[in-house]
Amino acid sequence: MEKSIVTPWEVEGEIDYNKLIKKFGTDVLTDELLDRIKRHTGELHPFLRRKLFFSHRDLGWILKKYEEGEKFALYTGRGPSGDTHLGHLIPWIFCKWLQDKFNCDFYFQMTDDEKFMMRPDLTLEQTHAFAYENALDVIALGFDPKKTFIFSNIDYAKTLYKISIQIAKNVTTSTAKAVFGFKNSTNIGIVFFPSVQAAPCFLPSFLNEKNVPVLIPAAIDQDPYWRITRDVAPKLGYYKPAAIHNMFLPGLEGPSGKMSASKSDTAIFSVDSPEEVDRKIKRAFTGGGQTIKEHKEKGGNPLTCTIYQYLYFIFEEDDEKIKEIQDGCKKGEVFCGECKTLLSDKLVKFITRHQENRERAKDVLDKFLLKD
Ligand code: TRP
Fold first, then answer.
1. What is the pLDDT of residues 137-163, one digit of tens each?
2. Of 187, 221, 252, which one is at a domain's C-terminal end?
3. Are 114 and 153 in contact (CB under 8 A)?
4. Same domain assignment for residues 136 and 197
5. Are 57 and 131 found together in one domain?
6. Which has fewest Cβ within 10 Å: 134, 147, 208, 361?
7. Residue nearest to atom 9 of ligand 1 (CA)
8. Residue 74 gets which letter from DSSP?
């Protein structure tokens, strides 16, 4: 059994999400909480229904505040080290839904500073340029420009710095080492960086000059930042940020680990051509038998199938259809080719539309940006 590692900088191996909830000390996203969301939204986003979001911190508190008439803001972000892939889009798509349903302000941090300091192979010019490329993918999802605030850490440093140093003053080196695994060889920029990623948790309060509850939809590997931020919050007189965590989308090479930009053949990028998307899907790892004969005899395993996971979590919202696929695969009656074609068609449609929106986003980018 491979060792599973989940730090913000490394996600690999078979992932046991129940263990992660224990390890991080977060809470399971219960059906009761989902029902409570539904009372306000009328319907549940498929990511909630299918439990792609599975864990949280203080979601009940955020809802309570909302029910008492205190609106919450959303915060998430991106480390701009390359093109955006499908795995990145998951929390962003979810934020768009939350913005619509709960009428939220949405803050989006692009950590061009982090990626510059983390990656020996990237220059500041490169991470800064990637940030604004990635911002187009955010805007393409349809956010409301009046309620959406996107910023590069480099370009919004003056404001962020004021908040970051207050946080940094309250976090010891020994805490940072314990939480993030920093070593003596870690550069000091990276050691300071958690206070920069924490800063936007308090930015809505800072800008509005009153306490604003903040909910962070993000993959679970980012949780250590929120743990530290939550410890510091009361010392600075702010609310603790709440979080809702999603699982990783696997790469197309197999069910473990997460989609990664460094494995470009098995990640679907927002800028891939439709042909490229189709090619990647057709070559993906599936849960099917080695041969048609074997598949007919023994059936396939949807649970280890990347194609099935993509359909289940994102692209096939119809419960009956997904059950048909699952049962058919297990019985050896539905073949990998069929599922691949189904997914490829849906994904190509999605990517084509996304790319059109992404082009249009170039004209309106400025309406979304915070700079100082
Ligand atoms: N550190 C994140 C990354 O490398 C980027 C990030 C910044 C982020 N702020 C965030 C991610 C808030 C989720 C939520 O991808």
1. 999 999 999 999 999 999 999 999 999
2. 252
3. yes
4. yes
5. yes
6. 208
7. 77
8. E
Tell me, using a 6 A CB cutoff, whether residue 79 lines ligand 1: yes
Quote the mean pLDDT of the chain: 94
Q: Whose CA is nearest to atom 4 of ligand 1?
A: 79
| Ligand 1 proximity of 197 Cβ (cutoff 6 Å) | yes
Instruction: Encode pLDDT of 189-232 as tens digits.
Output: 999 999 999 999 999 999 999 999 999 999 999 999 999 999 99
Residues 324, 95: Cα–Cα separation, whole Å: 30
Closest C-alpha to ligand 1, atom 3: 79
Which of 54, 38, 77 has its CA nearest to residue 160?
77
CB crowding 40-56: b at 16 or more within 10 Å, else e: eeeeebbbbebbbbbbb
* Chain Cα centroid distance, residue 20: 16
**Count of domains in the chain?**
2
- Is the minimum distance from the CB of 111 to ligand 1 under 6 angstroms? yes
- The CATH number assigned to the domain holding 75 equals 3.40.50.620
Which atom of ligand 1 is nearest to 218's Cα? 13
Q: Specify the pLDDT at position 18.
A: 85
We report the CATH number of the domain holding residue 290 as 1.10.240.10
Q: Are 243 and 219 within one domain?
A: yes
Q: Is 195 in the pocket of ligand 1 (CB under 6 A)?
A: no
Residue 368 in any domain: the answer is: no
Going by pLDDT thresholds of 50, 70 and 90, the confidence category of residue 1 is very low
Are 319 and 205 in the same domain? Answer: no
Q: Are residues 133 and 273 in the same domain?
A: no
